[in-house]
Write a structure and sequence with these properties.
With 442 residues, this protein is an alpha/beta fold. It folds into 2 domains: 159 residues, Response regulator (Rossmann fold), CATH 3.40.50.2300; 237 residues, tm_1862 like domain (pyruvate-formate lyase- activating enzyme, Alpha-Beta Horseshoe). The protein is built from 15 helices and 15 strands. α12 packs parallel to α15.
Amino acid sequence: MADTKVVFVRPPNLQKSGQWKKQGVIRCPLNIALLASFVRERGHYDCVLVDFETTEVSSVTDMAEIVLAESPRYICITTLTPRYPTAVRMAQEIKRLDPAVTIIVGGPHVTGSAQTALYDGISFGIIGEGEEALLELLDTLESGRGPSNVENLIYKDGDATRINNMRPYIKNLDELPFPAWDLMDLDDYVDPAYFKGRHLAVFSGRGCPYDCTFCASRVTWRRKLRLRSVENVTDEIRHIVNVLGVRNLMFWDDTFAADKKRATAICNRIIEEKLDISYTVQIRADAFSDELIEALRDSGCAFAAIGVESGNEEILEKIGKRETKSQFRDAVRAMKQANLPVIASYIIGLPGDTHETIKETMEFALELDADQSKFMILAPYPGTRVYDIAVQRGLVDPTSFEQMEDLNYYDSVAINLSEVSDEDLIAYQDQAYEQYDTVNAK
């Protein structure tokens, strides 16, 4: 008897113009690769992965037909807020074409918007950590039982949305299988700006102990930090290099050096085993030490990314960064001295931002003079504290698809919590890039 078919789907990016966007940079769908691997290994389901970042489509009907061509019984869609409207439209078209399929959604948007996530066409939602909850839901449905006892589940009971209890987080991440990379064409995942050839991603841990007001990490992980062992992380890197033939990696941990000793040990293991990789990490400025910087550089770190966010000390304190301008200066100076490239990111339009504080941020970016700087407009994602502020101010319509699609922090303002206009925020973003590019062109 054939295993039950489960199709995992990543919706595409969708521009406001309604055109499907083909980017030069395509990141791998690590989250659903992890889910598919777990469900396949522990539950013996036949899993397929459909990535609409790499599959050309021109409409939700195209997407629905491609997914249904796999003859699934279950369809699992995971997505961030800006893509959620596309996911809903796709789900509704799938159900129109085949009412018998069960559609399950998950990801940070569903967790942060549990009460409003279940639109027509969607059968269930999973909040928080997904592996065990998804497997239990599939097993429950296959056995014909009801979903009322499946933890981390949201579902409709008549007109009411039921939100079940949360289960404990997985204690030992080393027990999880590696992602199901065999379900996709790895040549599709490229980033010409940073890497030559294809690249993949690794989570060496989950969660972040810090609590920045704008960050969606707390939505899923609730500030619970769990780290994989040095051995387990090294095993995965070795598999990616030796078996998959990929040498470019991105560590997607919220902060790679939450445990500096462990982070340094991973770097040293890469050096000892001569794994010959190029990789990127995200790190807090206050986590750097000379030893860690040298270990990162010598083990193939292409760049370390730090979130500076603001050049104003009061704003930094307000958003819960728990880092100072002095610490950012020290970190960038130390990385430059060690020839370790650094990318700094800044947020324009934070709560309390004024014309003066935004100009301070732009000036601080010029002072730090990172190898690359990114200037993003604040995107208050559901479940974050800045989103809660927006709700309190009456700026949020949790059912507005247009508002969701605007939460991309690149070129639009969905929810403005600053003291300046939407037009000024976009103008400052353009000006920041122009100033930075002009200085670096000299």
